[in-house]
Amino acid sequence: MADATAEGMSDTSTIGQGVTVSRTGEHGAFGGELLTINFGPHHPSTHGVLRLIVDLDGEQVKRLKPVIGYLHTGIEKQAEALRWQQVVVVTDRHDYLSPPFNNLSYALAVEKLLGVDVPPRADALRVIMCELTRISSHLVWLGTSGIELGASTMLMYCFRERDTILDMNEEISGFRMHTSFIRPGGVLADATPRFLEMLDRFCNAMPANIDEYESLLTMNPIFRSRTIGIGRLPAEDAKVLGATGPMLRGSGVAWDLRKSMPYSGYENYDFEIATSELSDCYGRYLVRIKEMRESVKILRQALDRLPDGPVNIDDRKVLPPPREELETSMEAVIHHFKLFTEGYTVPAGDAYAAVESGRGENGCYVVSDGTHKPRRVKFRAASFVNLQPLERMALNHMVADMVAIIGTADTVLGDVDR
Amino acid sequence: MIADSLIVEKGVSAGDAWISVAPDSIHTALSGLRDDGYRLLVFLTCVDHLADSSKPTWPGRYELVYQLRNMETREQLRVRTFLDGDPPRIDSVHDLFPPANWDERETYDMFGVVFTDHPDLTRILMPDDWVGHPLRRDYPVGGEVVEFSEEHEVWQTPPPRA
Questions:
Q1: Which residues of A touch B (CB under 8 A)?
Q2: DSSP states of B50-77 as a string?
Q3: CB neighbours of residue B162 within 10 Å
């Protein structure tokens, strides 16, 4: 067979589609030889195109090396060729399950550079969109994890509610998934009465739906035996490895940017940080379920206290004038023309803004050189960082447990590769 | 505690505190800051200041940015350092902050910054045989060879006798 390299990863030879096996020449604890298995990139349980090179002793994982980059789309490079307001559209696409968080981190960073604060109603609408998306992102996670861990009906239940959220996205922004709703200077549009009505219905119905999910999984013996004690990540390791979001809170660390470093008025909402001391896959499941409940609480508060007023800053250099002004005001026409041909400039400097997405810290670092295009836009992707503890979690577990571990890490490969 | 002699410049940009250090003291500075409580490296990246006229002169073409956070006091600090050279070289900090491992690989992949003593400095997002470093400012957008472009041309042209 092929020579083993220094890390013990030998050249793999394809014996079938999706999975290749090769021998490393090393011997494991049970006297057998270590086998290198190529897992992915086209494997349904890798949630996209993640490739894992795994060294197995029998069925135990002894080494694991994630290989990423299959979904690299060059969003950061593309952003440098676009004007400041156009970048919003590409931010939607890196973490494709939670566009408003991507929009928000970018918008907050640009607003920091511009030195503007958005009106309270815009903040409330941003919070509403983010919390709705947090729920829908957790629902996708719950549904797909359910399928992987032997509860295939979960997907039907979860996508039923997710569809309601997508309907709301459509109502408020015209798009079901890539909403581009949050942009520097405010939001795309005010909430329609129908949206608020839908949101009200959603907030009333959702707690019972979450109870329904829990009744299917929380005490389900198959689900419990596949998750409890699997993929343990002790709190200290999680911190050192830079994990954020449910990965960190599932290890018992109460760190949530919404509470720890509040933005967009999160300090005015009453909610709890969901944590679990279990530090395993089941703990991360409990954290996400609790987070959905807390999100519903936030949505209810945001809806009840939705302030009146504008949803955009009153700055014609950054945002276009209202449509009706274009017919009467020459100045508005000039502003409109300048904004859609040249764009606006942002003072030179750099800023970093981070928001708590469904996956962890979703940050955006923007550098301006004072022109109408960004010099550099860097997305601090939660999934990229949360993928690194994978080896630590999967070590000495069975191959089948790896599926549970990848699932509960909840990485979105578009976010990993950007 | 980080010695004042290491700090070249300090300031605040859009509300974010930053310091800049010399490239050869980056490891010392970051290990001092880590002992001070900045235990989380939020991200590490590079900015290419090629033909950047927002300042009359830049100390170097490549600006490496390390965003640090103290999770107890919730303070943040950005550490910058400027590099030149082809390839630009700097010490790896993966031993101080494990998440830097992949960030450094990405920075190498995208900007060609070589991190000395990195355990596995290979391309992470681009294919292993890729030529060039895409996020450099002199790397064009859409400049890569389009596969099947010859066939595409044939396909677009109608046959002569049609």
A1: 68-69, 72, 74, 76-78, 80-81, 112-113, 115, 239-242, 255, 260-261, 348-352, 354, 361, 363, 365, 367-370, 375-376, 378, 380, 384-385, 387-388, 417-418
A2: TT-TTSS--S-SEEEEEEEE-TTT--EE
A3: 4
Each residue's pLDDT tens digit, A241-254? 888 889 899 888 88
A292 min Cα distance to partner chain B (Å)? 25
Predicted pLDDT at B5: 76
Q: Is residue A324 part of a domain?
A: no
Residue A55's φ and ψ, nearest 5 degrees, are: -100, 125
Q: Looking at beta carbons, which residues of chain A come within 8 Å of B135?
A: 76-77, 376
Range of the domain at A179: 75-313+345-386
- pTM for this entry: 0.87
- CATH homologous superfamily of B4-156 equals NADH:ubiquinone oxidoreductase Nqo5 subunit (3.30.460.80)
Residue A277 clears pLDDT 80, i.e. is over it: yes
Res. B145: pLDDT tops 70: no
Record: contact B134-A77, CB cut-off 8 A: yes
**H/E/C letters for each residue in A197-264?**
HHHHHHHHHHHHHHHHHHHHHCCCHHHHHHHCCCCCCCHHHHHHCCCCCHHHHCCCCCCCHHHHCCCC
Query: Does residue A360 form part of some domain?
Result: yes
What's the complex ipTM? 0.85
Q: What count of other Cβ atoms lies within 10 Å of the Cβ of residue A41?
A: 18
A91 membership: H or E segment, kind and range: helix A87-91
A224: distance to nearest CA of chain B, Å?
31
User: What mean pLDDT is predicted for residues A324-329?
Assistant: 86
Condensed to tens digits (0 to 9), the pLDDT of residues B35-65 reads 888 888 999 999 998 888 888 888 888 999 9
Q: Are A172 and A193 in contact (CB under 8 A)?
A: no
Among chain B residues, the shortest Cα distance to A254 is held by B71
Interface check B35 vs A, CB under 8 A: no
A388 pLDDT higher than 80: yes
Q: How far apart are CA B131 and CA A104, in angstroms?
A: 34
